[in-house]
Each structure stands twice: as C-alpha cells, then as structure tokens.
C-alpha cells in the first residue's frame, strides 16, 4: 500500500513566519532604544526631585562651571571659598539656606563650616532669609543656626527665633548627616539631640550609625 505524502511546506511556513516576527520585534526594540538614547544614570524619584550623579553644569563656561548635585540643586560658586581652586563634583557640598556650596578638596568643607561667615562674604553671594524670603540673610554668627550639618542665616534675631520654634516649616530639605542624602524632614523623622543640636535622619539605619559614633558625624570633619 502506497503511503500518502504530506506537504512539508506547512511547517516550513510556520518557521519562516516565526523567524520573521522575532526579527521584526528585534528591529522595533533597537529603534526604540536609539530614540530613547543611552541612560548614563538610572533615575530615581525621591520626595519629588531627580536623583543622579554630581556633575558640572554643561552650559557654564569652561573652568567656571558650577556643580549640579544629586538633588538637582546647583552650587552657588564656581571656585572653592577656602582654597580658591576649581570646585570638584566628587566633594560633597555644605548647604547654606538650602543652597549648596561646592569645594575643591576634602578638608575644605570642615574649614568652611567652622567659620562660614568669612567664606560666604568672600564669595560675595546673596542668600534669602528662610523665614522672610523677600529679605536678604545677614552673614553674621549672631543670626546663624545649624540643623544637622546644614547652616542657616537670617535677616534678624527675630527671624532666627521664629525658625527655631518651627524649623520644619522653614528649613526645606535637609542633609542626612550620615548618608548625605537630601530629604524632607518632619516630626515623624528619626531624631536625636547631640551637643545641643537637633539631628534628623532619612532612615532609622542612619540614625543608628550616628548614635554608634556621633563624633564622626555631628560636624563635617576634615576628609568627610
């Protein structure tokens, strides 16, 4: 009995159709990737601002570039207030009235934090009073306050006292003294008082690290 021949082209057609569909999907994926462009830094949302890596502001003149930090804030200076060198994105800033001051090397943030009035006057910058934003802050120790490692100046002693009564209302974002992460503090934030200053933290884990070695984190120490 002669066997019936079944056409082989049906399976071949299926294979061809499958390969064509896979190829089309690969092409579409490649085009979409090219249109979106390379992602040098993974973006992450945290309290409403973009997270990235510190880098020079590309639109600034060469050698006069400010630094854009991970919270998208831009340094108020292009040269280090302590040594005068070009600011380095790899150095963590000190925030004054919510604005980052950039530095050129490790010891400078510590030196700056011990006498900020001197160096801010040298920068010839103007910062707003956190309590009365229409007024300029005065760079004088009599109207200075510290919260975490951040520094605040005010236009008057009255404004300073008002800030201390309700710091969450006026401080904006703070810097976690351990992780250096910027976060929005609240009454529920992990908190500890040390050497007469209040410290707030972005997480319980950084509070625990602070309490284990407060001398390391309560101020910006040289090299930190």
Summarize the structure.
This protein is α+β, with helices and mostly antiparallel strands. The protein has helices at residues 9-36, 108-114, 116-123, 157-165, 167-170, 204-212, 214-217, and strands at 45-46, 49-50, 55-56, 67-68, 94-96, 99-101, 144-147, 150-153, 174-175, 182-183, 191-194, 197-200.
Name the features.
two-stranded antiparallel sheet, 224 residues, globular, alpha+beta
Task: Explain what this protein looks like in three dimensions.
There is one protein chain. The protein is of the alpha+beta class. The protein is built from seven helices and twelve strands. The strands form six sheets. It has a two-stranded antiparallel ribbon with strand order 1-2. It has a two-stranded antiparallel sheet with strand order 3-4. The chain has a two-stranded antiparallel ribbon with strand order 5-6.
Largest sheet: 2 strands, antiparallel
Q: What sequence of helices (H) and strands (E) makes up the elements?
A: HEEEEEEHHEEHHEEEEHH
Strand order of the largest sheet: 1-2
Summed over residues and divided by their number, the pLDDT gives a mean of 84
Helix % is: 25-40%
Uncertain segments: 29-50
Strand content: 15-25%
What is the number of strand segments? 12
Q: Report the C-alpha radius of gyration, rounded.
A: 27 Å
Please count the helical segments.
7
The quaternary state of the protein chains shown equals single chain
From the N-terminal CA to the C-terminal CA, the straight-line distance is 91 Å
Derived from helix and strand composition plus strand pairing, the structural class reads: alpha+beta
* General form: globular
């Amino acid at each position: 009995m002669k066997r019936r021949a079944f056409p082989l082209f049906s399976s071949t057609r299926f294979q061809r159709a499958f390969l064509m569909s896979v190829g089309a999907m690969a092409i579409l994926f490649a085009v979409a990737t090219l249109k979106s462009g390379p992602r040098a830094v993974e973006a992450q949302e945290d309290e409403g601002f973009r997270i990235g890596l510190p880098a020079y502001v590309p639109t600034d003149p060469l050698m006069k570039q400010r630094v854009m930090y991970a919270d998208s804030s831009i340094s108020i200076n292009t040269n280090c207030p302590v040594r005068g060198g070009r600011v380095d994105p790899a150095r963590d800033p000190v925030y004054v009235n919510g604005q980052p001051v950039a530095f050129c090397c490790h010891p400078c943030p510590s030196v700056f934090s011990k006498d900020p009035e001197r160096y801010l006057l040298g920068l010839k910058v103007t910062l707003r009073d956190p309590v009365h934003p229409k007024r300029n802050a005065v760079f004088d120790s009599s109207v200075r306050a510290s919260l975490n490692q951040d520094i605040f100046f005010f236009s008057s002693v009255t404004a300073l006292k008002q800030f201390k009564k309700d710091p969450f209302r006026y401080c904006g974002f703070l810097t976690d003294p351990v992780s250096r992460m910027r976060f929005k503090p609240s009454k529920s934030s992990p908190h500890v008082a040390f050497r007469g200053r209040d410290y707030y933290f972005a997480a319980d884990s950084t509070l625990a690290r602070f309490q284990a070695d407060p001398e390391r984190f309560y101020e910006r120490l040289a090299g930190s």
